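lol so apparently i was supposed to do this last week
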Amino acid sequence: VKYYLQNIEDKSHLNVFLEVYKEEALKKAEEVDQKFRQGTYGKLAGLVVGLKDLLCYKDHRIQAGSKILEGFESQISGTAVERLIAEDAIIIGRQNCDEFGMGSSNENSPFGPTLNEIDNSRVPGGSSGASAVSVQADMCQVALGSDTGGSVRQPAAFCGIIGLKPTYSRISRHGLIAYASSFDTIGIFSKSIEDNALVLEVIAGKDEYDSTVSKKEVENYTGALNFDKKVKVAYLKETFESEGLNDNIKEKTLNTLNFLRAEGHQVEEITFPLIKYALPTYYILTTAEASSNLSRYDGVKYGYRSPNTEDLLSMYKKSRSEAFGSEVIRRIMLGTFVLSASYYDAYYTKAQKVRRLIKDKTQSILSDYDFIIMPTTPTTAFKIGERKNDPLEMYLADLFTVQASVSGIPAISVPNGTDPEGLPVGLQIMTNDFKESELFSFSKYIL
Ligand code: GLN
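anyway here it is w/ glutamine bound
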């Protein structure tokens, strides 16, 4: 704990933590030491964990990187957080993020951007950018983020670490502030596959507080990390033909595919023309869900209330427009528009249908192949400010990660070397629902 606290202090210019639970973490470390001596300690004894500012931790502040939750304290711990603590993990602090998880660069935060440790002029990715940097820069061993469309995998790729988005419904969302409920998953950042597998083992599984969580038994992921079989791997032609794909990333991904071929695995190109609709489908559906989820922040129940109000309506309007950032407002407007009576069928219903088609096709590919491999992102970490004023350009950062989110399948980003500038490149591996065990062992084999 002292080691990580020192790093947090030494690297405070990276702007990772909104709050550090220094005394509390040191006290918990003493307790865990005591338990250690007595020989009765939890599975995560001494594991130092950071939390994205979207995960509720009882009696601690939480504000989803938003002014609208200013001063708000959580009365509950989310299920994942509770399970970490029950196994003697040590929570070290609350981490910066894009407001409500909306963003790809950690620049949509009222607390300012988080910097990538490798090059401080570059973004760490988003929305769980700070959680990725906390692991990258050794400020904690593991961090929990949330991945709605890539927010764990994309920053993991930009920071050169591992980021897992498990199957939708594998981890309870109780205590995770909602962005787009049918996409949101808690995700795990780590430097090793072992740590990632161990944490998933602890936090996954049925939970009476989340009616959508799967009741499927949680596997012993850490006990199944050996990989010794030949597998079938698919890659999508369309991915490699994407306009914005950086040549170096393309080459690195193809090298990995060639390595797998040389090792005797079956690697095949397939086509998936519909995949070009994954990004628009994602943005129509998530903005729709967000506009509904965020309607609860009305200046009455939580956090910020405008001081300049005359009546009830102006209190709602002013509280919301003064506190929400511009990206959140943009998405509430888009979402409200696609859900409005005259456009509902043209956008929302249509996008739901396309989501089904993408999900079915993805699952049918994964019934023939064990894995789909592609780059995690089309580019490496971009410069701070470079895309901030161009939302469409920013949305392209999620080009490759949204397929797994639209389909609900698990996906992981693992480091795949660096480009000539020394910037990390990520490799994304996807597999079928609830096959996290295979995902871990295959990733470990590739690494
Ligand atoms: N960048 C994507 C978005 O802004 C993904 C966000 C996420 O996964 N939370 O929606």
